[in-house]
Fold these 4 entries.
Entry 1:
Amino acid sequence: MNWFSNLHVNPVAPIYVGQLQNGVVWIRVEGKGSFQNSHGVKEFADLMINRGSKEFVIDLENCPVMDSTFMGTLVGIKKSLGPENQRNLEIINANSRNTQLLVSLGIDLLLKLDTEGNSWPEIRNKISNHIQNGQYLDIAGMSKEENIQQSLEAHQNLSNADKDNIPRFKDVIHFLEQELGQQSAS
């Protein structure tokens, strides 16, 4: 392990991040993956992609549930990584609820979803020891407009991921676009 840090976005649901010696970026969600911590995940992933990282693991072992903004953020990270044959985003340790959410939105077709528990056998059980000794990164809070923009992008990512998602999220997207317009006008 090179390092692990806590994106101190939400003290109830921290996000631990690190980079393995082989360059793989490990992101572990400790609690609910939500709109409250999705921006920190996106910022960190963007930073690592800009530094040349090509492979990400999203570890959901201690994540009981994810909201649509968080899942849309994961789709956005995959989009930022580019074509699948060049770069990879893998989800491991998803419970049955999170697996059902990812499959129902078609996200499992975009990302590698390890439902068998076979990926990363040499590290997946040792990761907790490294995480507990991590450093902390403080992520500044976002304005209301930034929150709306993040949520809008995440829901657009979900709609673009699978045509069946368009009717699911069209009202949310419309509402967020209106909210963003009102925020920009004031």
Entry 2:
Amino acid sequence: MLEQRNVLEAFEITERSRRIQEVVLNCKEFKSARTVGAYYAFRSEVRTDLIIERARSLGKKVALPRVEGENLAFYELSSDNCLVKGRFGIMEPLPYSPVNNIDLLVVPGVAFDKQGYRLGYGKGYYDRYLEKNKKTISLCVGLAYSFQLLDCLPLREHDIRLDAIATENEIQYF
């Protein structure tokens, strides 16, 4: 799956990501969210720039993840100048303004299934974060290219089900 995603041309990533983000931007949960958690896209991941820009232009608080030890923590994105390269080469916010309650959280993944589960890079960062913070997140949405959505993924006991998955054509709720 990762190989299939990594062979996408830059224009395909941009266009498919735009369509996926538009699906999210048009959902009622985005419209009502006061705080949006996103991620800084890495390599061929679905981009989040439109979600971040629109949220900020509407006066919503935007939070991005930062790797701290074996866990993720979300910090407010106050300006693009506050991003630094993190442990895995992914841009992260500086640890100034922690965000504990997120109305809409969008997450990346290598693959997703039609039951709402995601396969990440295998380190469990998002699963640990979601398990620990599920009561402070109103809706968690995986962003996926349509080819990343499979019928079923092999599950492990620590895997956390998402609330929804957005693809180029729709958002599926679970």
Entry 3:
Amino acid sequence: MAATVDPTYDDGAGSAFGLINQVAGGEMDGGSLADEEIDLFDRRIIAALRAEGRLSVTELASRVGLSKTPCQVRLKRLIDRRIIRGFRAVIDPVRLGQGHVAFTEVKLSDTREAALEAFGRAVLAIPEVEECHMIASSFDYLLKVRTSDIRSYRAVLGERISVLPHVASTSTFVAMETIKDADD
């Protein structure tokens, strides 16, 4: 479940994130930003919310050079088109005891569509896998796996990842230090 926002909800404080509703997550319908008629004000809204997602609509409007109502309408349109897919808290995994990061290459024994779909569905059930990317390389998938330590990673690899459908082999790279993270 991904949290999305109803920007038309008025909580009395002019909150930009409004009433949070739980809806099923999903991908955009394949269109790019270029396809979506994004103008300078939309880009300013996106940039402001990327930097500070909890801005009130009033503050957001002030920062992007619009009055409150047009800003609210644009925000709703960006959310409805799934250009803005939601708002979330950025959590420090190290402070939660989840500081070990490993990248796992996965090679499948079968790369026909049914096998790829089976692997894709099954990997979603492993909470330690933060990211899963299909790769054009000598292996098929690259996973970002977060655990508390190398022992926990070894258990996830042996008991959960290696038994996924059609896994032929894996190779692990352990991160020694994170220099840049998307959430920073």
Entry 4:
Amino acid sequence: MNIYSFVPRPRQHRYIHSSFSFNYFKPCSTCLQDTGEVVLKMEEMESIRLKDYLGMNQQDGADHMKVSQPTFHRILIEARKKIGCALVCGKAIRIHGGTYEMGMNPLRKFQCSDCQHIWEVMHGTGRPRDCPMCKSMNLHRVKDENEYTRTGYGRHGKHQQSI
């Protein structure tokens, strides 16, 4: 038996498809004492979003995050346990860290407002100047499969979800 027999393998990255525009929740209370905080990992927040907010079943959520269904279940159970602790004990929730990669579609969709033509452009190529069909400059981003569009300006624009 060698020394490496007891070393666990590296944790596989989980794929997150949404960037959250918030990272801290704190209970509003009359007493101003600090009751502590619970740290919710990004992959745990993503599992809550997929299962509880979007209503996916566990297999679809696991496929979305590129993990097995039992791993998705463990992530979800841990997230719910942390959120329950925060609610019952009045603790703040910090969304931070974890082992994840941002999984995003390599293509962006645009639509011409004049002729309604929809086309796709690779990420990193910049915004198209005009419609390839009618050459109109009146164009906008189309929602992707996660119902997200880019808002704001530049590379770090916020993602919003239409409800």
